[in-house]
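Narrative summary of target 7.
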Amino acid sequence: MTYSVSPDRSRRAPSGVGATLRNMRRTVGLQLAAPLDARPSPPGGTGPVDVVLAAVLVALVGFGVVMVYTASAVQATVQYHDAQFFLKRQTAYAVSALLLAWAASRVDYHRLYKLTYPVLGAVGILLAMCVVGFGHSGGGAARWLSVGPVHVQPAEMAKVALVIWLAYSLAKKAERVKTFTVGFLPHLIVAGVYMLLCLKQPDFGSAVVLLLLTFTMLFVAGAKVGYILGASILGAAAGAALVRFREYRYERFLAWLHMDQHRQDLAYQPFQSVMSFGSGGPTGVGLGRGLQTLYLPEAHTDFVAAIIGEELGFLGVALLCAAYLLLVARGVRAALRAPDDFGAFLAFGLSAMFGVQALVNLAVALAILPTKGLTLPFVSFGGSSLIVNAVAAGILLNVSRQADHGERQAVREQEPESMPPSSFAADGEA
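Modeled conformation, tokenized:
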């Protein structure tokens, strides 16, 4: 579907990086951004999905199933007497995730207009439920809600919900994003509420990701760098205080700084993770032949990258990083070609979400950052993370579906005014 704009209702685009995005999309013939109340054209206006983006998604999900199996077989045998216990569940999650991604790619992303605030509020309620006592505890944190045999992690949903709301709000405010009271402070307040609910679980890693996503999208939209820089300084100070004055966080931080002295206690997991990377060498010891699964706790979840490093070596990790880089690059490409600001901000925010989470997870696995409970997108074991990320990828695919048609429609609408017949002859003579 495409959204048409009449001249009297078109809006100015933000300047700064937002203007750069706008100008780059103009070079491929895109029209001005459609207003939020734009009407869809008849069905059949969308094109095919970005094949490269879809292929990367399927490859990462399939690769995740394989690595979850090889990383969890020992634990599954000891704990459940079934080497394929986690494999069966991850396979079911993967099939469900791909089906949901396909379904999301078929739904016009503009339908999220009316769902923005209901989704934002519903996810906020789920986060609050984790805090007030309904949360299922695991690893010292109440981050999950149990619905029968299904465990839902609202913090994963919060990242997508916040991106959708930021895209909606930034597209709606356009130039007003440069102001503090209208364009900056409200976004920071909403993100702050979500972050506070995550911190109360506690889930420090998700709170940091939410803040990074907010600043990234504000920067892209053209918010004043001074506001972002000032808020970043305050956020860093607050983060340092949260670490220093919470005993378990501070002890974990000190153990990370002096890993060699705490490799048998608080730094045991990151130390074993680094050992996995080191023992892999250039090409790894071979798929399924790694020994660190005997020593690295929960290797199939947050530290699955360490098993990849051991079994597939530097080459395997480099290819994994290249896959994430390609995923983000194609997402940004979809953002630049989106037919309106909402689609552009939405695609950019979701791409940034995948990139930030992958970067933080790999940095933690390499002990570059202290331990955080963040999964490796599409690869780590877990239904909540995989399904939510797959739905987000489906939305991204839908934005890519509308890009080419939006360009063709814009060219057809602009040709009578901006491209007189004589211009082609002039270009040919030149």
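The CA atoms of residues 152 and 384 lie 6 Å apart.
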